[in-house]
Amino acid sequence: MVPTSLIQFIYSTNLVSRTTAELIAQRFAEKSLTKNEYLLKAGQIADTYLFLETGYLRAFAEDVSGNDVTTAFYGPGQMVFEVASFFGRSRSRENVQALISGWYISYAQLNELFHALPEFREFGRSMLARGFSELKVRMLSTITETTEERYRALLAAHPELFQQASLKHIASYLGVTDTSLSRIRASLYKK
């Protein structure tokens, strides 16, 4: 049975009717991963468009020195897919690792819906626009904000993330070492 949270998520965009949202949601299948299991590994072609129902996902890539750098965190109620690989049908340069329960649809099924339901095309465009907007905001924050400001913003926006992700992964997401993040945290708690 498809969760109401997926139907509500699709419907909440105001781009599809409730009936169409239910029809679309019926095409999704349940997917569960265990802690540290991969939804996508670098080198694979992404074929999963996932609605994250519970848990968290971490996307990361390896830098030129072989260190993993967290590129994104995803929480409940978000759509998760590696956009360049999924739509470009190219090998991913990112890994997506998780502890989750969610609902997914394959690339072929998603395209079938895009062609069959104009409302769903608008939903898809909305998801892409939202994702690119979030990416731009994150990119600009790394340029215009201090690490402490980025840490505070992440903590304010997603406090539950700090119980799900390791400080090492949060530090790499913020673009600092875990030692630097520890110093920032210590100085904030002293204030």
Report what the structure shows.
There is one protein chain. By secondary structure, the protein is an alpha+beta fold. The chain folds into 2 domains: 4-144, Jelly Rolls (Sandwich), CATH 2.60.120.10; 146-191. It is built from 9 helices and 5 strands; from the N terminus they run ααββββαβαααααα. The chain has helices spanning 4-11, 18-25, 83-88, 107-116, 118-144, 147-157, 161-164, 167-174, 178-190, and strands spanning 29-40, 48-62, 68-74, 78-80, 95-106. Strands 1, 2, 3, 4 and 5 form a 5-stranded antiparallel beta sheet that branches. A hairpin with a 5-residue loop joins β2 and β3. α8 packs across α9 (178-190). The chain is globular. The termini are far apart. The model has no long low-confidence stretch (mean pLDDT 91).
In short:
The chain is an alpha+beta fold and 191 residues long.
Unreliable runs: none
Please indicate the percent range of residues in DSSP E strands (runs of 2 or more): 25-35%
Instruction: Supply the CATH class of the largest domain.
Output: Mainly Beta
Question: Which range best describes the helical content: under 10%, 10-25%, 25-40%, 40-55%, 55-70% or over 70%?
Answer: 40-55%
SSE pattern: HHEEEEHEHHHHHH
The rough form would be described as globular
Search tags:
2 domains; 26% strand; 5 strands; alpha+beta; five-stranded antiparallel beta sheet; Jelly Rolls; 9 helices; 191 residues
Topology:
Elements: H1 4-11, H2 18-25, E1 29-40, E2 48-62, E3 68-74, E4 78-80, H3 83-88, E5 95-106, H4 107-116, H5 118-144, H6 147-157, H7 161-164, H8 167-174, H9 178-190
Antiparallel strand pairs: 1-5, 2-3, 2-4, 2-5
Helix pairs in contact: 1-2, 4-5, 8-9
Pfam family, one: cNMP_binding
Domain Cyclic nucleotide-binding: 24-92
Organism: Mucilaginibacter pocheonensis
